[in-house]
Amino acid sequence: AQKVTQAQTEISVVEKEDVTLDCVYETRDTTYYLFWYKQPPSGELVFLIRRNSFDEQNEISGRYSWNFQKSTSSFNFTITASQVVDSAVYFCATRISSGSARQLTFGSGTQLTVLP
Amino acid sequence: KAGVTQTPRYLIKTRGQQVTLSCSPISGHRSVSWYQQTPGQGLQFLFEYFSETQRNKGNFPGRFSGRQFSNSRSEMNVSTLELGDSALYLCASSSGGTDRVNEQFFGPGTRLTVL
To answer: What percent of chain A has pLDDT over 90?
Structure first.
């Protein structure tokens, strides 16, 4: 079984600050995917980033970057120069990459509030 | 492409009633997954349908059921509603084929309130 832990329940920052959201996962599978989703007040889950277990290269995409470390089972997500519109609940999720099981296992989410 | 649509967006029912929620996936997508989101349990997987067949099922009682039609639209049914069924029900669409990634795209959800 897979498990995702997001220890930060709520984070509050002032606009333009950088913020890092932590994610620790557990899985017995050797191949898997990791995701970050954003859920604004409207409720829809918006896909942000995906990383597979074979690729530990960390990247930057616009104001988003992520730090995947297999050795510590962590998949942290950073927003640079935060904006008020970034206020939302952020979910980390994992999914195995083999077989037909396509379901996502989500963490409990981190509520990010960006203050003007 | 149009996104995932879910109807209705809001629903109020009373205990003991049954409810049917609908999800239309992205055109061309053959897989539809359902998730329940509650403050206490978070986001939990209900089931997945692919080509009109249930492919995976989460740990929910038999009161929760679903089906998928030939046009890939899916419905989810909850019978004998309980107060604890109050939740946001999210539908996710993916190609579901041999593509390894099978990105899931979510709809806006149906907010169900059971009184």
So the answer is: 60
Q: Helix, strand, or coil here: A8?
A: coil
CB–CB of A104/B45 below 8 Å? yes
Side chain identity at residue B69, one-letter code: F
Which distant-in-sequence residues (6+ apart) come within 8 Å of A94 by Cβ?
A2, A4, A25, A27, A32, A33, A34, A35, A104, A105
- Report the sign of the C-alpha dihedral through residues A8, A12, A15, A18, in that order: negative
CB spacing of B56 vs A47 below 8 angstroms: no
**Could B56 and A103 be called an inter-chain contact, meaning their C-beta atoms sit closer than 8 Å?**
yes
- Percentage, residues of chain A above pLDDT 70: 91
Low-confidence ranges of chain B (pLDDT < 50): none
Place of tokens 């604004």: A40
Q: Which of A42, A44, A102 sits opposite B56 (nearest CB)?
A: A102
